[in-house]
Each structure stands twice: as C-alpha cells, then as structure tokens.
Design a protein that fits this description.
The complex is a heterodimer of chains A (219) and B (404). Chain A is mainly α and 219 residues long. Chain A is built from 10 helices and no strands. With 404 residues, chain B is of the alpha/beta class. Chain B is built from 14 helices and 14 strands. Chain B has a 7-stranded mixed β-sheet with strand order 7-6-8-9-10-13-14, with helices on both faces. In chain B, a hairpin with a 2-residue loop joins strand 11 (339-343) and strand 12 (346-349). Chain B is globular, with a radius of gyration of 22 Å. Classes of the chains: A mainly alpha (219), B alpha/beta (404).
Chain lengths: 219, 404
Amino acid sequence: MIGPAVVRLGLAGLAVALVGVDPGPVAGHHVGVYVPRDNEVSANFKQLKFAIQAGKLDVAARLFEAGAVRAEMRAQASRLPAGLEEATRAALETGDARGAERGLMILFAALARDLAREADRRLADPGEPVEARVAAGRKFLEAIWRYYNLVDFAVTQYDSKAGVAIRLALDEAEGYAKTAPGRPATAPDPAKMREPLRRIAQALSRLIATSSASTRRDS
Amino acid sequence: MREKSCLALAVALALLGWLAPPAHAQKVVKIGDLGSKVGVFEGYGKYQTMAIQLAVEELNARGGVLGHKIEIISEDDDTKPAPAVRKAEKLILQDDVKLLIGAVSSGATMAVMDVTKKHKVIHWNSVSCAEFMRTTKFHKYYFSNQPDSRMQATGLAKHIVDRMGKRAYIFYTDYAMGQSDGRQFKTALEKLGGEVVGVAGAPLDTKDFSPWFGAINQANPDVLFLAFAGTDSLRLMTQLHSFGMTKKYKLAGIDCFLLQQDLPAIAEPMEGFVQLAHYSAYNPDKNMQAFNAKFKKRFGVDANIMAGAYDAVLFWAAAVEKVKSFDADKVAEAQEGMCVDDTHIGRQCIRKEDHQVVMDMHLYQVKGGKNLPIAVVAGKDTIGEPMVGKDPVEGFTWEIKKKN
C-alpha cells in the first residue's frame, strides 16, 4: 500500500527503507532494544561507522564512495543541506571523525524526517480505510526507527532534548498504532498518530538546521 | 565498470595494508569487544570499546602482555541474544580471541555465557546486571565487575531505610529486568526492617502509567522505588512529574534506570532521584577523577559506567602475566581472588567463589541533570553470600507483609 505513494513522490530512499519491513508488530522501542532488519543504506552506514570508530577513516572514505549511503545522499540531495556529501567526504579524507559522523547523522535525520512527513500525509488520507492507514503507519514507524536508531546516540549527544523528544514521540505514535495490552477498548487510531509524527519531523528539522549550520561554521 | 573494479581493488589493497603484519612484527594476542555499537545503547557499547582501547593502549605502551601486542576486535550484537551468540562464536572461532568482554544487555550476555563456557574463553561482563549470571548461569570462565541487581538493591535498600524512609512502594516493568530488580529490592528492604507498602508491575509497553498512580498515592509511601529502563523510564518520569509525584515522594532506582546521555534532557523530573553506581564523572573521588582525566584526554568526552571494561582488561592481563600463559583454565584460576590496584576506582579484588569484583559503590542523587555522590556503600556490604548454582529468588513472594 505504501509503494504507490513512494513512487509518486519519487523518494527512492523511502522505497529502500520500506523494502523488507517485517509484517509483525512494531515492538520494543520502549526499551530501545528493537532493531529492524537492515537495508543496504543502514548496512552501509554500519560499515562506515565501524570503520570510523576503528580510526580507519581511509577505509571509511572508500566505503562511502562505493556505498549506498553516498548514493542515498545524491538521491535525496534536494532535501538535504547543501554540500552535505562534499562535507562528509572532506571530513573522511581529512581524518575528521566527528565531522564525518555529523554528516551521517544529518543524512539519517533527514531520511527519518521525510518518512515522518510522508507518514503524516498518508495517515491523513480520508480515502483509505482505517485499518490500511494503521498498517501503513506501523510500517512507517518501523522505517523511521530503522534510520533514527542508527543516529540516536549522535543526536542525543548533539541535543539531548531532541533525542529524548523523538524517542518519546515515536513511542507515543507506536501506542496509537495498536491496542493497549489488557485494554481492548483502545483501538488503533491513525489520526492520533499524526501529532507525534509531526513532532518528530519538527525536532529533526531543527536538528538538521542547527547541526548543518555548525557544519558550515566548521568547514 | 572499470571504475568499480579499480575501486574494489583499492579497497582490497587498503584492507590488506591494514590487516597485513609488517615484517618482524611483534606477536599479537586478540581480545573481543562485543556489545551494542549502534543505536540507543551505543552509549554503553561505544564507551565499552573506548574503555578497552584505553587499557590496551596503556598495556601496549609497556610492551603488551606476555610479549604480545594486544589487538581489539569489536563486534556489534544489535543488542539481541542471537546476533550476540553469532558474533561471540565468530570472535572465538575465527579471530581466536583470548578474552571476550560483553555484551551490554543482560539477555545477550547470558546467551554469550553459553558460548564462552562451551569454548572455554575468559569472559568479562562490565555492564549487564541480571542476578542469574553469578548464580544459576555461572561458569568457570565468567567474571563480572558490574554490580548486579542483588548488589545494587542491597546497597540502595540500606540507604533508603537509614536516610529516606522505611515505607517503600515498588513499581516495576513487568518483565525479566523489572521483576528481577523489584524482587531483589523487596527482599533486601524487608531484611533490613523496611516495609513494602505496595507493589505493582506495569505491563511491558505501557504508554499511560496514570492508572497505577492512584494506588501509589493511596499507599502513601516514603519512597517510590522504580524498576524501569530506556524509554519506559523517560515516559514514566514525565508522567509522574506532571502528576506532582516527583515532588511528593522520594524516588530511587538502579543504575540502568536511565541512559546517562538522557539525563540533561529530563533533569527537572529526575531532580533528587537516588541511584547507585560504581562510577560518575562528577564524583570527586581521586581515582575516578584520575581515570576520567586520562579518558577525557584520549577521547575528548567524560567516561561513564563502562569504565569497568578498562578494569576487565587489566585483570585479565595481570592474570596472564602471573601464569605466563593465555590458557583459559590457568588464567581463570589466576583471576580468582586476584586484586588490581590501578582500576578506575583504585584497588579492587575478585571474589573467588562467584568471580564477582567486590566493588565499592556510591549513591548518587540527580542535581541539575548530574549524578552527584551522596554516600559510599562498601562492596563487602552489598555483594551478599555466594550463590553459585542456586536460585537467587527461591521462595520469593510478592506478598505484602503488613506492619502494625
């Protein structure tokens, strides 16, 4: 059900994000241990991250050039801060691990933000039955978490209030996507999911704006 | 296409250059670093890596261990038992690590314990705190310098009875972690003459805690003991605060209640919260400050409770040097009862019977988003009797014993 909307928007990254989404319930954000299956973008992110953490920025630079993360940066360039790809590459080439991690954080924050916006739009569609909207909402939450979880620590270190607000909002949206245990009267409510999704998008937009500004200052 | 081939070659050459030993290289011994390297628990997994790195750099600067340069192989376990087991097997069977440190979550650590037992590899845990690891799951090669839930509950209960009030209400998240913390705290509090005036378990994934608040208010405890973790803790504290209950009751919990990095964002609801831990960068203790200074100098950030991973490497290296061997049986025996002076909190010793480091801990109170020390609790007073092979909660009941 999500496919057509994705195609309409031409969001290649979103399509990648939503491929292979488990049909099961979105569970486990509450303790932060739930980790969705990787797609090629998140898998490449982890390769980059481990190489950066190991101090092998030359290896990371090569993984970046050949990998899905850079391809995603190009595909989403119009929605990303100007010069993000160049700044990330420059950080990798000059051994600036923090700068490289910040570039990756901005990309994944932007991917999560766009998914939150798209989820909000889809949940508002009165043409779809409630069940379909709830199902779509769950898949979007899974996709948002796939990307946001990767950079949560970086986000929280950069702006702890943003990190906490996003996790709480994801958690709240998840609550509206299912029936509460022991409370069958609380049916999933796609309309209520929209407000926390908007908060996620807003928090991530602010984060992208402020962290991009500091990227420019540092460069 | 040609570009891709060139690139692949370049990457391969780079990796070869990275991996290939130079001529006349020093012999190498590998150690494994396993845990949550990406995601919400990165604050533990990443700091574990840094703590290990610091110890290894210091040891290598002095010639390594037994004439071998130490190399670290880090692996991410997705904070889940199944990948943790796969990565532990990879570290042991493929990389031939002689020491494995990890994991972060108790579920993953307990799963990895089966692997280290099977393959006879020295295994240190520096953050997981389930009570079963030094009791029913214990094995010869397993060691821990994380105070488990029994140690923490015992230390907290004494402070609570002595300083905060005798009547406590236990509110826990109703799955393994919360149940474990809750029952250990109840047992400890009742032993010390405190009174549990109520207990409640909120199902996992509860979004709205307010239905439980009425019962808590009705019981009117002196202290509210909270056994939650991660986003549950954030949500619960926010809701307690909005109901005025963070001001009405004294609050306490164990050290994994909240991720350290989240504290500044929820400083107001957490103000006054008491918890127990072995380390805080804000503790003026000279050993902690010395450790934090070198950690900060090396990595540019304050250390956190993962400092224990630093000590794990020191204990293992000291034992290897003592027995002049990497043989796990010999190293395990050498570690039993061993003391090391230069850990992140000074001198520490491993108890022979259950391989638990007897750690002094501090009680911390949150003030302005920082964990500030308010009291010291001696490790010998919290470690409890060795219970290897025994059920640590045998005979436990949630029944409330009313006091007149």
